[in-house]
Amino acid sequence: MASDDGSRQGAQANHWLQRLRLSGLMQRLVRTEPQTKEQLTELLQQAECRGLLDREALGMMEAVLQVADLRVGDIMIPRAEIVHIRRDDPLESILSIAVESAHSRFPVTGDDKGEVVGILLAKDLLSYCSETHQRSFNIRDHLRPAVFVPESKRLNVLLKEFRASRNHMAIVVDEYGSAAGLVTIEDVLEQIVGDIEDEHDFDEGAFIYKRGKGEYTVKARTGIDEFNEYFGTSLEGGDLDTIGGLVVQAFGHLPKRGEWVEIDSFRFAIMRADSRRVHLLTVRPPSSDPGAFSHDPAPADPA
């Protein structure tokens, strides 16, 4: 019993000590009254050094402070990279696009790609996948209203609007009202919590996925040696270990989604990135022959 009482008293002492430390930090926050985000960040970093915050929590809090400074145009998927459906596409073509991309929502365009007339949900196509379906398909019966936002909208404002309206996607328009790109709620959240993987993302052990003829999705942390082995190439990274590091070096800056660069006739486009690092790359080899490579693609599909 004495031993149990001692353990309990020790636990209570540690609890109160932790509270005193936190109280001291809060007193310092109030006393110093940080005037800038940099000063506030410095205090949070000191809290992490004292063990009051773990590194992951600190990173998220710093990211929250940065989100207010970012605008939609900084993270949007540019129009050239959008997987879209044309209003007059036949059902067979629409189903093929939905299956190959594995997306859940698709902008539907009119005569011009910059004219978005609505959003089509993949789940609305399920009843047409059966060979026994009898209904005729009219895409206008399934269009959902599209949400339009300007490139200049701040991410914290957009996130608030997403939550209030329960929308997951918005079409980004330029000053002339033409579609310049799109942004999703996942894109915004990833600026705070980092890369979000869902059921369509890579398996943990997979680094390279074959999306279609002559196009691959590659994790930025794929080793250069592994990349060379897969594609039968001899890219050299010097002191760099990953293909993402090699691509960032080729850019000369931290690239944004939609930017691309060529290295040894390979085209590397940024598929997913945040304000800190690159996550996913779209890779187009110089050869479009799917039999030119010695390995089978990974079995899972990225988002």
Structural features, described:
Helix content is 36%, strand content 19%. It has 303 residues and is α+β, with helices and mostly antiparallel strands. The protein has a five-stranded antiparallel beta sheet, with helices on one face. Strands 1-7-6-5 form a four-stranded mixed beta sheet. The protein has a three-stranded mixed beta sheet with strand order 2-3-4. The longest helix is centred in the N-terminal third of the chain and has 31 residues, at 2-32. The chain is globular. The model is unreliable at 288-303 (pLDDT under 50).
| Count, helices | 9
Mean pLDDT, as a whole number? 78
Sheet with the most strands, sense and barrel status: 5 strands, antiparallel
Helix fraction bin: 25-40%
- How would the global form be characterised? globular
Integer-rounded radius of gyration: 24 Å
- Strand arrangement within the widest β-sheet reads 8-9-12-11-10
Q: State the secondary-structure class.
A: alpha+beta
**Strand residue percentage:** 15-25%
- Count of extended strands: 12
Poorly predicted ranges (pLDDT <50, ≥5 residues)?
288-303
Ends apart, CA distance between termini: 57 Å
Order of helices and strands: HHHHEEHEEEHEEHEEHHEEE
